[in-house]
Amino acid sequence: MALSQDEVLAGLAELVNEETGIDTESVKLDKSFSNDLDIDSISMMTIVVNAEEKFGVKIPDDEVKNLLTVGDAVNYITSAQG
Amino acid sequence: MSQAKLNQFDPVQYSRIYAIGAARGNLVVSNDDVAGPIDSSDEWIRQRTGIISRRRADKDQSLMDMAVSASNDAIAKAGIKANEIGAVIFSTISHPYQTPSAATQLTELIGASPAPAFDISAACAGYCYGIAQADALVRSGVAKYVLVVGAEKLSDFIDPTDRSISFLLGDGAGAAIVGPATEPGISKTVWGSDGSHWASVSMTNSLLELRDGVASWPTLRQDGQTVFRWAVWEMAKVAQQALDAAGVKAEELNALVTHQANMRIIDEMVKQLKLPDSVAVARDIIHTGNTSAASIPLAMDQLLADGAVKSGGLALQIGFGAGLAFAAQVVVLP
Asked: What CATH code is carried by the domain that includes residue A31?
């Protein structure tokens, strides 16, 4: 069953918190993963793989470089759900 | 027409690693030494890779020097004579000649001629590929003792301004003597390749482009994120397959010796395999760097030298890298 944008954001925030310790409150749609949240490309990939499992979607390596902000990731995951 | 009589070798039931030898590059290169050209810092490199320093060979220490040193070390520890070696396998990506092989020269230099000798090009899986081959040669009776060398002078193929891989890389050589055993010492190898990711770890250009003047000296580079994902999640599956093929549970291991690509990969793989704290994890990358085909034997040598593991214990070794290529086996520690 497809999740809403808010549910995806909440789920993604949990994954970011698990990987980096960053407060879930800081994970807002307009935040850039690298510039604002200081998440490096290796942590980003861990979050991506965990998101694939959590949300039941595929996020190919080519797409990961396009996910610059939290909003980009939420939009991608929301659309990728069936 | 009757079947011709074709004599076969007498097989041997098991093989084991008799000894490991090691040689590292003579220079200790700190993060500060490499950070400038990549516009980075000691702190960034440590946090991102776990490396504090890496070993590099200076211009007077060649790939062959390190390989000879590691080989003689292994031969002495194994308690055999060089002329008893029945085959020499040299895994490397940094031998700077198309031909002759590094293996034939090494064989001559250590006094093992006229043993058959050949190179393997399987990058960071090269040593485990070599062990798989040596195991098969020994158990099929083709050779009694096999010398497997993983040796690299990667610094010959580095662009210091490359941010994708250059600062990780180091120089060194590890060697193993594989021979017959009365009990299993090397498990079934789980190995393979994924050529669909041929470009994920590669050279900037070919020698032909250098010849034609359209590119300069080829150097190493990688797609770090693609390699990280493959190395952690796909290779954790291979590691588990190797344990299953061997009939060994993770908690029965004494050591995990992965290719020393990046500490973040090692840490994630430990998590994926759910290794208990009782299993020693090789982290030689901290002061050696990523030495491709040399990294596993060097890391195993370090664990043994530090007393973190004992001879006779069980280790899962897994190599993975450019190709992409991978190989894993469970071995009894020499």
From this structure: 1.10.1200.10
**B224 interface with A at CB cutoff 8 Å:** yes
Tell me how many domains chain B contains: 2
| Residue B142 and residue B194 share a domain | no
Token code pair at residue B142? 């083709």
* Domain span including residue B264: 190-332
Task: Say what the ipTM of the complex is.
Answer: 0.90
Q: Distance between CA B49 and CA B331 in Å, rounded?
A: 27
Contacts of B229 in chain A (CB under 8 A): 45, 48-49, 61
B51 Cβ neighbours under 8 A, 6+ residues apart: B31, B45, B167, B168, B263, B285, B286, B289
- Is the bond preceding B114 in cis, omega lying within 30 degrees of 0? yes
Q: Is the CB of B118 inside 8 Å of chain A's CB atoms?
A: no
Tell me how far apart the alpha carbons of residues B146 and B127 are, in angstroms, rounded to a whole number.
13
Which tens digit of pLDDT belongs to each residue from B98-131?
999 999 999 999 999 999 999 999 999 999 999 9
Helices B263-273, B235-246: crossing angle, 10 deg rounding: 50
Helix axes A70-80, A5-20, angle to 10 degrees: 120
For residues B21 and B164, membership in a common domain is answered with yes
How near does any CA of chain B get to the CA of A34, in Å? 14
